[in-house]
Design brief:
single chain, 131 residues, mainly alpha, two-stranded antiparallel sheet, 6 helices, 2 strands, 8% strand, elongated
Amino acid sequence: MSSVGPWPESGPGRVAGFGVRVVAFLIDAAIANVLAVIVGGGYHRSNLQSTYVLVFFLLIELLFVTFASQTPGMRVMGIAVVRADGQGRPAFRWALLRTLLIATVLPALFTDASGRAMHDRAAGTVMLRTR
């Protein structure tokens, strides 16, 4: 076990590193962009495309974390968001708080000694490797 948390230092269940989190983000952002293009009627055919991308990204984050514990990007990268106490996926209110903090971008960039980002600490969650 790690000296900075109850999670193992290697193997499944370890805290997800920055690199896999970034790749998962990029996958989810690409999905949000595709949805924005569809809703906006084409690539940059709407002045609201950036807004659509943000809304779709946040909806993907909120709904998938709440109901499946992982977004499509997280699934591809083998990571999931779970309650820090190890009791399964986060409740809606904590997933919502986590998502709102992600919308401000900065909390996702700052991690503690265990590798947990600020938005995960605030929501009582942790992003762990599933494989």
